[in-house]
Design goal:
The protein contains ten helices and seven strands. Strand 2, helix 3 and strand 3 form a beta-alpha-beta unit. It is globular and about 50 Å long. The chain binds zinc ion.
Length: 313
C-alpha cells in the first residue's frame, strides 16, 4: 500500500469510526425518544363497522393529514345491524362501506369476522386483539369503556383492556413479536355514569376536519341512513338525495355532537383563548393500564395543540 493509499485508508477509517461512535451515542442517549420524523401509529377498536368513525373519525383524519398511520378495526362483521338484510350479504356490504370510509380519510380499516351481537371476551378474540396491536406497532390504542348499553361495545372494551398488558409479554401469542414498550391506551367518550363518568383527559378540536368526518360517516349508508334511523323510528326523515342526506347527517346528533361540560375546561388547558371558538371536538380518557404519558408526551403524541411546532413527515 502506498503512502497516499494509507492516508486515504486511515481517513476512511476515521469517518467509519466517527460515524460508529456518533450512531452509538445517539442510540444510547435516546433509545426511546419519540422523534418528529417518525409517524405516530394509532389503532382504534370498535365493535361494529362505524363505531370507530363516530368516536375518533375526526382525530384519525387529523393524524392522516399530519402523515401519521391510523387503523380502525371492527371486532365484529356487523352481520346483525339491519332491519331487512342479514348474514354474509350484510357483512360484505358493511365491510365494503368500512373500506370506503377508511379510503375517504386515508386510513386502513379492517373488519374481523366475528358475529355481530354475539361478541364475547374469549381468549381467541383477545389474541386477535393482541395480534392487531402488535402488527400495527401501535403507539396509541383506542377502545370503548367497558360499561355500555350494548354487549358488543362492552366486551370490546374488556378485550382491549385484557390485551393492554399482554402486548408486551413475549410468551403470549408467540407468532407475533411483542411490542418493545406499552402503548398509551385511550377510551372514546361516552355518557355512561356508572360506575364512574367519562373523564375528558385529552380533547381535540375537529373543526378543521368536521366535513371530512361526516364524509367518512356518509360511507356507512346501511347504518346512518337505514338501520339507525329505523331503530329510532326516523326512517321517513332521511332525505333520498345523497347530498341532502349527508347534510342531514351533519346536522343530526350523530354528526353534530354537543361538547360536554367538562370538555371546555380541557380544551382551555391546551388551546388557551382559542378554546372558546371550538365547535366540534372529540374527547378521550387515558386508561390506567397502558403507558402513562407526561404532559410533554401528550403534546408530542397529539401534535395538534397551538404553541407547538407541527412537524411534517
Ligand atoms: Zn356499535
Amino acid at each position: 500500500m502506498s503512502n497516499s493509499a494509507k492516508q486515504r485508508f486511515s481517513a476512511k477509517s476515521c469517518v467509519w469510526i466517527g460515524s460508529f461512535v456518533y450512531l452509538t451515542v445517539l442510540m444510547l442517549s435516546a433509545p426511546m425518544a419519540f422523534t418528529a420524523d417518525k409517524p405516530i401509529r394509532v389503532i382504534a377498536f370498535g365493535a361494529h363497522p362505524d363505531d370507530c368513525d363516530q368516536g375518533a373519525g375526526g382525530l384519525a383524519t387529523k393524524y392522516a393529514e399530519h402523515g401519521d398511520k391510523v387503523k380502525f378495526v371492527s371486532l365484529t362483521n356487523g352481520d346483525a345491524g339491519h332491519q331487512s338484510e342479514h348474514g354474509e350479504e350484510l357483512a360484505n356490504r358493511r365491510r365494503a362501506e368500512a373500506q370506503e370510509a377508511g379510503r375517504r380519510i386515508g386510513i386502513e380499516y379492517e373488519v374481523l369476522d366475528n358475529h355481530d351481537g354475539k361478541l364475547l371476551p374469549t381468549l381467541d378474540v383477545r389474541e386477535q386483539v393482541i395480534r392487531e396491536i402488535r402488527q400495527w406497532k401501535a403507539d396509541i390504542v383506542i377502545a370503548p369503556r367497558p360499561n355500555d348499553y350494548h354487549p358488543d361495545h362492552r366486551y370490546t372494551g374488556v378485550l382491549v383492556q385484557d390485551a393492554s398488558y399482554m402486548v408486551i409479554v413475549p410468551n403470549l401469542v408467540p407468532d407475533t413479536p411483542p411490542l418493545p414498550r406499552n402503548p398509551i391506551f385511550l377510551y372514546y367518550s361516552d355518557r355512561f355514569t356508572r360506575p364512574q363518568p367519562f373523564r375528558p383527559d385529552i380533547v381535540i378540536s375537529i373543526d378543521a376536519v368536521f366535513d371530512k368526518k361526516i364524509n367518512m360517516m356518509d360511507a356507512h349508508v346501511s347504518q346512518f341512513y337505514e338501520w339507525l334511523p329505523w331503530t329510532e323510528g326516523k326512517l321517513e326523515q332521511v332525505p333520498k338525495d345523497p347530498a341532502a342526506r349527508k347534510k342531514w347527517l351533519a346536522a343530526s346528533t350523530r354528526g353534530e355532537r354537543e361538547l360536554q361540560p367538562g370538555w371546555r375546561q380541557a380544551l382551555r388547558k391546551r388551546y388557551g383563548a382559542q378554546a372558546q371558538h371550538i365547535q366540534h371536538a372529540e374527547a378521550f380518557e387515558i386508561t390506567e393500564y397502558g403507558r402513562q404519558p407526561s404532559e410533554q408526551e401528550i403534546r408530542e403524541m397529539f401534535p395538534f395543540f397551538p404553541g407547538m411546532a407541527i412537524s411534517s413527515h
